[in-house]
Amino acid sequence: MRTTTGWRADPGETALRKAALERRELRADDIAVRIDYCGVCHSDLHALEAHAARSEGPLVPGHEFTGTVTGVGGGVTRFAAGDAVAVGNIVDSCGTCAMCLRGQENFCREFPTLTYGGADRRDGTTTQGAYAREYVVRERFAHPLPAGLDPAAAAPLMCAGVTVWEPLRALGVGPGTRVAVAGLGGLGHLAVRFAVALGAETTVITRSPGKADDARRLGAHDVIASSDEQRTAAARDRFDVVVDTVAVAHDLGPYLRMVAVDGTLSHLGHLGPVTVETTDLLIGRKHLSSAGSGGLPATAAMLEFCAEHGVAADIELLPSSRVNEALDRLRRNEVRYRFVLDMSDLP
C-alpha cells in the first residue's frame, strides 16, 4: 500500500484530525495525483454529520480537487508525470449500463463509485476522499486541467460547477434564453457565471439584498429580492429556465410561477422531499427537473468552456490545517462562495 497524510474524522466524530492514510498501489490504469487544492462542499458537511450519527469507521471527505500527476500505471496512455489534472466526485462506474454508455456515469444504474465513502469496484474497500496529499484514481475518471485555469479556483468546478453546467446545457441555455438563478452560493454563483457566458439574459433571485452587488459583478443583468412581493409578482411567467440552488427545504411554488410557458424549473440545491402543487405545473405546461454531478463528456466540455471564457469559482483559499474552521464557517454560511483547501501544508 501507498501512504499519504490527510484529514480524517474518526468514528462518531465530525471534527477532522491529521492522520496517516493508505492508498492502493497503482493498478495498470491508475494514476497517482499529488492533491494541490480541494474544494469544501456542503455535501462534505452532510457526510460528516451522517458519519457521526452512524459511528462506522473513519471518514476522509473531499471530492472536487486539482493536482499534479506523480505516477502512472503500466497501461496509462492519457497522462504522464507532471500533468495537471482535475478530479470530481465520481471515480468509477459499471461502464456497461445504458447511462454509462451514453456518457452519464453520474447516473450509473449500479450507482457510481464516489470519491469518498464509496466501495471500490475491484476490492470492495471504502474510498477515502481528497482532504489529503495524494489520491489514486483510474485515469478515465481524471481530466486534463486546461492551461489558463487557476487550479485553486478550478477545483470547485468539479462538483459545484458541473452540477449546474449539465442542466444548463441540457435545457439549451444560450442567446435569447431568459434564465433566473435562485440562491447565490457555491452552486448559484457558478450558475450565474455559466448562464452569462452562454449568452443568456440572466437574473438572480436572492433573499439577501446585500448580494445584489455581487450578482451584478458576476454578470447578472437583473436582481430580484425574493421578499419583494411586487417584483416577484411582476416576474410571473418571465423565465425560460429557473435554476434553483437553494440548499434548504423550501416552497417551489414561487419559482414555478416565474417559469414561462413550456419552461423548466431545475431543482438542484436541496435533495430532500418536495411538495408541488400540480396547478403550478399545469398553468403554462411547465416542467420540473433535477440533476446531480456530471458525466465524463460533460465535465470535459465544461473545463474547456471555462478555460475559453474565463469561468472559475469565487474562492477563499485556506491552508488545509484550517479545515475545521472552514467547515464551521460553512455551517454558518460565512463564505463567498467556496472554500478551497491548499494541501501544500501536508507532507
Describe this structure in words.
The relative contact order is 0.16. With 347 residues, the chain is α/β, with parallel strands linked by helices. It is built from eleven helices and 17 strands.
Short description:
With 347 residues, this protein is of the alpha/beta class.
| Number of separate helices | 11
- In the CATH hierarchy, the third-tier topology of the largest domain is known as Quinone Oxidoreductase, Chain A, domain 1
Strand proportion, as a percent range, falls in: 25-35%
Main sheet: strands, sense, barrel: 7 strands, mixed
Write the layout of secondary structure elements.
Blueprint: E1 2-8, E2 17-23, E3 30-40, H1 42-54, E4 65-72, E5 84-87, E6 90-92, H2 98-101, E7 113-114, E8 134-138, E9 143-144, H3 151-154, H4 160-170, E10 178-182, H5 186-197, E11 201-206, H6 212-217, E12 222-225, H7 229-234, E13 239-244, H8 253-258, E14 259-267, H9 278-282, E15 287-289, H10 296-309, E16 315-319, H11 323-331, E17 338-342
Parallel strand pairs: 10-11, 10-13, 11-12, 13-14, 14-15, 16-17
Antiparallel strand pairs: 1-2, 3-4, 3-8, 3-17, 4-5, 5-9, 6-7
